[in-house]
Write a structure and sequence with these properties.
The protein has 6 helices and 14 strands. The strands form 3 sheets. It has a 6-stranded mixed β-sheet with strand order 3-4-2-1-14-13. Strands 5-6-7-8-12-9 form a 6-stranded mixed β-sheet. It has one domain (3-267): Deoxyribonuclease I, Chain A. The protein has helices spanning 14-20, 22-30, 86-90, 133-152, 186-197, 203-207; strands at 3-10, 34-38, 55-59, 69-73, 79-82, 108-112, 117-122, 157-162, 200-202, 216-217, 229-230, 233-238, 245-250, 262-267.
Amino acid sequence: MTSYNIYSWNVNGIRAVLRKGGLQNLLDSTNPDILCIQETKAKQGQAEIDLPEYEELWNSAKRPGYSGTAIFTKPAPLSVFSDFTDDIKNSHPWQDDSYGDPLSEGRILTAEYEQFFLVNVYTPNSKRELTRLSLRHKLWDPAFLEFLKQLEQTKPVVVCGDFNAAHTEIDLARPKDNLHNAGFTPEERQGIENYLTAGLIDTFRTLHPDEQRYTWWVQWANARANNIGWRIDYFFISKVLLPHLKSAEIHEDILGSDHCPISIRLEF
């Protein structure tokens, strides 16, 4: 039997979470086979990481100190590639916005394993004034779903990361107060719904249908201490992988970021 203990964490700056000891605490307490990180805010070599058991994979933003994804993996991947495939890049009307080029922000990192593709994603935030909602709704979400379905033609997918959206009212503490705010607009919620309609499985919600737990808290007003949060970090898997899903968890006790880690365990 082969088992994969996979963790995902938006660290809000890998150098900061290293300095706070949060990353080492996660590794010591959980010993993941694979760790996917979002919002590294660094390029490889800018953070002092000494993890000899893990192979390091990075996709950093061109803009310094911004965005970025990384994967730390014990099992050797069969292949690794960054960002969208060329045909998806070329078939959508991508353009720079006031924040830059979304295709140069290190937002997607894919590692292929024997049984699946693992896709680590940091979805663009729609921003407080919803200035990136159109990019998110009309371009990013459709292109990303197209990318996942393209991968599924070869083998199943495991998709994890910060999707910057709560799907339904159970996924945030104050849904009525946030109906038209970034992270809970109808457009963003539809983006999540479209992944499910296309056959992907929300692992946590499938195994914990009624639990109201969160993965992100604003950094003021004691939101985390009072558990006024949002579930915006997800593991989605292809439907054919559901029989192999043994657990899906949220780890609120691990500190160091405004997000907490999430995990799944797959057995083959």
